[in-house]
Amino acid sequence: AAVEKNIPSKDAAKTIIAEGFYVTPGLVDIHVHVYAGTGIRDAYNGDNSVYPDGFTFRSCVTTVADAGSSGWRNFPDFKDRVIDRSKTRVLAFLNIVGSGMGPYPTEQNTKDMNATAAAAMVKKFPGVIVGIKTAHFEDPEWTAVDRAIEAGTAANVPVVVDFGVFRPERPYQELVTKKMRRGDISTHMYIDYIPMLDADGKVRPYLFEAKKRGVIFDVGHGGGSFDFRQAYPAVHQGFV
């Protein structure tokens, strides 16, 4: 392979006239759900997921990261069923819940949030499992976040947090300014219920403080989890 201003066509197996187009390396989508084919209804470890090859290449995406569809109990099945059979390069954030993102109330089961088992699975598949995920937790305790960070710390990988139901007992501000570590990811950053803007429409200072701490904010939206009333003023004020 070569990247040069001019490459003789005789040296190429195939020549494509790309004048007027942008030429870029394959894009990476870090938030997808592709654990398809299990037949489980109303679940991201089932029918809510789609196979990656059906949407990636047509969008110039060559690598995706599944955002917590599988947990330590069913990751081997996900790997065999999807990762190993896809032309797309598929990485994974492992759900802190052992059975992954199953039908409600699967992700509320704190008894299945095993940090030790999750970390062990990450270590078993280095370079394929690239982090830990917690999502959709409703209770007022910090259990899901704490277990995910415990697993991420033990396996030396980042944690993705989809904060779930926002509760006053566990404020979002505390999550991003105290709980999360450098390199951890808060996803769905422009969703409507994040306390992002003050009464004057200004981005709250704690969010810029969190970015300075090294917390990464991920847009993470497909058909939802996005509100222009949040995104437009935030982008124009530099919170991107």
UniProtKB/TrEMBL annotation:
Gene3D superfamilies: Metal-dependent hydrolases. SUPFAM superfamilies: Composite domain of metallo-dependent hydrolases, Metallo-dependent hydrolases. GO terms for molecular function: deacetylase activity; hydrolase activity, acting on carbon-nitrogen (but not peptide) bonds. It comes from marine sediment metagenome. InterPro entries: Deacetylase_Atu3266-like, Metal-dep_hydrolase_composite, Metal_Hydrolase. This is Amidohydrolase-related domain-containing protein.
